[in-house]
Design brief:
Length: 483
Amino acid sequence: MHDKNIRIGFPSEFLWGGATSANQCEGSYNVGGRGIGHIDLLPQGETRWSIMQGYLDSFEPKENLHYPSRHGIEFYKHYKEDISLLSEMGFKVFRMSISWSRIYPTGEEDTPNEEGLQFYENVFKECHKHGIEPLVTMTHYDIPLELVKKYNGWEGRKTLHCFKKYVSTIVKRYKGLVKYWLTFNEINCVTALPYTAAGVVLDKSKNRDTQIYTAVHHELVASAWAVKYVHESDFESKVGCMLAAGVSYPYRCAPEDIWLAYTTDRNKYFFSDVMSYGKYPNYKLREFGQMGFEIPFLENDEEVLKDNTVDFISFSYYSSHIVCADTDIIAEKAEGNVFPTLRNPYLKEKETAWKWQIDAQGLRTTLNMFYDRYHKPLFIVENGVGGIDNLDNGKVHDEYHEHYLREHIKAMKEAIVLDGVDLMGYTPWGCIDLVSASTGQMKKRYGFIYVDVDDNGNGTYKRYKKDSFYWYKKVIESNGEVL
């Protein structure tokens, strides 16, 4: 007798696609009534990382710096062509985000910008024309700059109220066009990159943890409000949270390393714990007590968190991490990661061009850890490898993209078939080349589609299909069987 719970491959309804964000691809920052977003002040170059960490020194752009998010790849102008290319690959789903400042330029207007609303309506309709479901992130490192100036981004309670207005607007407007929503992109990155993830500028006269966890609380409550709005507006729509994930390995079998690896991962889970269970976990309450932080509960925050948990858990996975409790141990630090990590000597794959270590098995482990913890559907909404691609007579040979994704798709299949994980879909990051979030460069390319633009925004912006374009098309056609 065949057990219907045993799978032999990817489910027939599996959502294959790819992922982007408005602030990295949309461009046209001063077109169509859009206001300035806080990432529009994130330059390329040596000051980029310190600003991402919360050390912004001016709200005015500097003449000698280049701000790549302002042009992106001009998806605003090319969206019909781009969606057609995604359709040619066979996409079932396209993850994208809405620029908050394109809907409410300062965040505080009484009425939304109709031209911005219409743009996204046109994009969603174009997706549906090609049989593609939009998977929409409400805020993907995207806050109107005016809310940073006036309220220090998500540190200010007022930003939460502005967000509620923004979300109620887009949820009502796009009912029937958007079936899958994500609230905050990589919400757990607030602790490492407070400006990027929350628009928080650190003040040396304030306690850093208090600033950051105040912003975290406001985002968690805002996420619950967003779930509430979506569920009340459209019973068929689903809402997920989104985290930067990647299992942490202990450097040694020493108990203190085991504990450090466990707590490192748990600090990531904290965010999804609140959004999935509807309350702050005891381990975090104790930690807050020890640091002297009092959660700024107001109004009906606790009730809203409790009653509006997410429908699914989504996450990004690029690599695993390794930690060690002994600071005297000399180990080379792996580069290119938001979350610090030591180098793993057991990973034999060649490192990426940006020194990231590759660990496909870590994706299977991460999937199982999430599913064991939440018993909710999972969605991998970012996964990929950035590299330097060369355009040669209209062609790009990027076998390294195919290899990386092939190994991770194998790990996904093992998690589904062998482990019973409920995985909804897969949207590799940067399905079309876009501005790198970490470096602000264009030469760090993730996509199946090459865009002719350089780090300074110069180029024809013409699109070219890479070799991986045709490879991924076969993967989707075969529902993950032909790799």
